[in-house]
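Batch job 17 of 40 flagged for manual review because the log was empty.
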Amino acid sequence: MNFLRSRTFRSKLKSAFLIVIILSVLITGGFSYSISAHVVEKNALHLTQDTVTKSAQIVDEKLNKLMIIMMTFMLSQPFRSMLKDASTGEADRYYTHLANMDNVFSQARIAEPLIHSIYISTPIGEFYPLTINRNRHTRFEDTFLYDRVRLENQNVWVEGHEDMLFSGNDRVISLILEPIFDVPVKDVYIVVNIREEGFRNLVEAGVGQDAVRFLLNADGIPVYSKNSNLVQKAIGTAPLLNELQQDVAVIGSASYRIDHRDYLLNYARLGITDWTMVTMQSKDYVLRDLIYVKWMIVGITLGAFLITALISGGLARYLLSPLQGLQRVMKRVEANDLTARFDGQGKDELAQVGFRFNRMLEQVVVLIDEVKQAETNKRAAEIKALSAQMDPHFLYNTLNTVYWKLKLGQIEESQRMVVSLSRLFQLGLNKGNEITTLQKELEHVKQYLEIQALCYPNLFHYEIRGGDSRFASWPIPRLMLQPLVENSILHGFKDMETGGQITIEMAYDPDQELGEITVTDNGRGMEEHLPEHGYAIQNLISRLQLFYGDRAKLALDSKPGRGTMVTLTLPRGGEQHDEG
């Protein structure tokens, strides 16, 4: 038992299964040879049928993948642009289309290595990869490929043949497609050449000893060349072809005699084409081991059942004991006891699962602590942002300016400042919500700029432009723009008395659903006042990460004496909020 404890779980299972299988074979060995032969033959047909069916599915999936790649190819912008000109007969941009299509050809061939080449015939010219030499001696209209697609008037799969469109005479299997476009397009055909050798390797993969696998089309013609002599003889057998052509079943099996030898045959029809996959194997090879069944009857006794039951039960109890211990630990964890740990002995796979479960629990505890810390940091960032908005120096300067303007009789400007200050705090508090909309955020920063412009007459001018109604309704964290314009006024314009300019611009990309906000000033630049406004930028970056994760970006562009530009790139996210 100690020896087994040091073994891997896989070795234990193999040992247990080997014992059970040996005993089971001894018990079932009393069946007669004829019955065993019938069962083995039947099972061999079923097993081979499953293999053939799966192989057919693999080939179908490969061909379907090729169709999907070509559908993607036909939906690409270079192809659609070329097809648009082809539909109207505009040939002026032929070479532009030829260059643009080359990248699309390369992408298709990279996506599917079986693709040998792609050729497109259009009224304005032919298109193909520039890296492959075109066979100028043969026109597409002169090939049998053109005759096939004109005759069948649909997507056509063409059996193996020498490539007539490109140099080298390589053996290929062709798929001929008509394009998908908004309006009908005539005389445009796409020829996709598949490497015959690679396709044959795909079909014949996993074929066992003394067995062959091949593909036939609906007329009983091989799909590719280089078939064995046995395949050639099987194709020449009239009963075989008649059954394959007349049987409408998707899968089937039968027995045939070729050259005085019996063969078991299984076939499965492909779904995407009218081809049929056929596997043949020698019946003698399948039944080669049945002679040993005659000698396996010895030893069948009642004691075999007792021994099998005892050994199987003991092994099962021993092998499942670590799993039962792990189950008890999991039940404690389900009851929110995160201190539970698996305590097992041995070094097998089940013990390793238990130890990894222990490490997972430790990581869960760490993650819970990290989440709590992240929530704490988030609340701290919110408090810092609110504190920055309610800067006592800003409030003091504003009220002091209102007082002196009233003293000087500037009633209208004083009223504007009070209204702006009231609206500023209303928008900034946002009814206690951290999330606002871009429209409300722009209104907030506008009120802030109005107040500062009245506090510092002639120091600066501001402009807010651009934007899109769809972008304006996006949810964003509040108080994002005020720290940026505040840096411009207090630090960028620190040594200026007049001539300052602040520009806020919005841009919206509907395809990628990205919004961009740019705050630009013509102040003294970044390097001189970076230490002074670095806290505000870092605070803004932290709040963006809390709301967007890594999807949002903040970019700084500044040089001494040339001003500062801050660009925020925001993805769409969060929930909508009503205007307040």
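Reviewer: the log was empty due to a logging misconfiguration, but the result itself is present. Confidence is low (pLDDT under 50) at residues 575-580. Unflagging and moving on to job 18.
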